[in-house]
Write a structure and sequence with these properties.
CATH class of the largest domain: Alpha Beta
Number of strands: 10
Distance between the termini: 37 Å
Strand order of the largest sheet: 1-2-3-4-5-6
CATH superfamily of the largest domain: Fervidobacterium nodosum Rt17-B1 like
CATH architecture of the largest domain: 2-Layer Sandwich
Largest sheet: 6 strands, mixed
Number of helices: 8
Strand content: 25-35%
Shape: globular
Oligomer: single chain
Helix content: 25-40%
CATH topology of the largest domain: Heat Shock Protein 90
Order of helices and strands: HHHEEHHEEEEHEHHEEE
Number of domains: 2
Radius of gyration: 28 Å
Length: 272
Amino acid sequence: MKKKKYYFLLLTAAACLSFSGCKSREKVDLTSSHTEAESMSPTTAAAKETEAAKPEETAEEETKKGQSSASALSVRSQIATHKDGKVSIEYPILSNLKNADMEETVNTLIKEKAIQILTDYEVNAASDTVAVQCTVVSLDRSRAVLTYEGSLMTEGAAHPTALFYTTTVDLDKGVLMGLSDYADAYTMAGYLVSDDCVVHKPANSSEVKDYLKSQSLEDWWEVLKQCDFTASGLEGFPQAFSYENEGTIYISVPVSHAIGDFAIVSYTPDTK
């Protein structure tokens, strides 16, 4: 496995109003209204004021009920941190799932994948430094989309390696989702080497595009066939990761250390 770790590091080093009309108002004789108000008894006036206020109170109560109902239906997340020696990895703990019996399964799966890098890279918590932050990109009753970004500094290494990985969890089934659930690996490989490719990160997209095109479509296809933790026959930590958010597919691929170790491209039907 050490060999695989260093092979990956070498690969990333060499490779990663509207308008409204106005009408004149008719004049209203306020004399009679004023007289009527003055002739009211204090009790009658107070009763009318109370009656007029009722619709507002009812609307406010309905709003509060609606907010309470929405809150009851929302899946909640709380960020926890796995700490061990020089290792610090954030991961979310989800609650209020539609299927309460699935919570333990989902949360176990999330943590397991969040810290899998420690096993696959054979990290020594006493001498290697790992710092990873988690972002909950999207969370609803059916799916959780999570990204992890940070760095790994192994003992004796000349520089740290930038890390980026993702997990997408089907909250109904308690299983992971991956690139094959929303895109075709070969199509995405072709997109990586095309002029239409949109670089989401890093900012210097021209360098990234040049690097992506320096690899063949077939090379990227092999990388993307092993994309995400869901890849068939996966051995070790994936080199590429993906996630989908609001119709856009994001894919991280390995690039040279000089560029940033990884690059993220975005794909929509408009950019194909």
